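Quick check before the chapter quiz. The format below is the same one you will see on the exam, so make sure you can read both the input and the output lines.
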Amino acid sequence: MNQYWIMLLIAAVFEVGWATGLKYTDGFTRLWPSVATIASMIISMYLLARAATGLPIGTAYAVWTGIGAVGTAIAGMVLLDESRDWARLICISLIILGVIGLKAVTPDGSPPAEDSALDVSQPHQAN
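Here is the expected output.
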């Protein structure tokens, strides 16, 4: 596992933190839970952006949201006594399988190829 995957995993942990933290902010009316939630959002987004420099964005975003969704669902079950019914657990398992699948089919190593069509440093010439 390279540095990009490690950054992505840490970003996903912070995503779970901010998504779960939303429940404790009471609509951003409680100061310290709001500060912690916003800090987690910033850290999570920064690390996602950094990880995306070395991973395909579709994979990075899907893995980030997948881990975040699963982690938040589990945090809701543990901390907030949310439903643990079998259908929900099966759906969570399917998300986990998708994340594992994306990791398995994404090459570890070099950053994605640069695409000159996305290069905004050069002015676009109309035909």
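If your answer matched, good. Helices lie at 3-25, 31-51, 57-80, 86-105.
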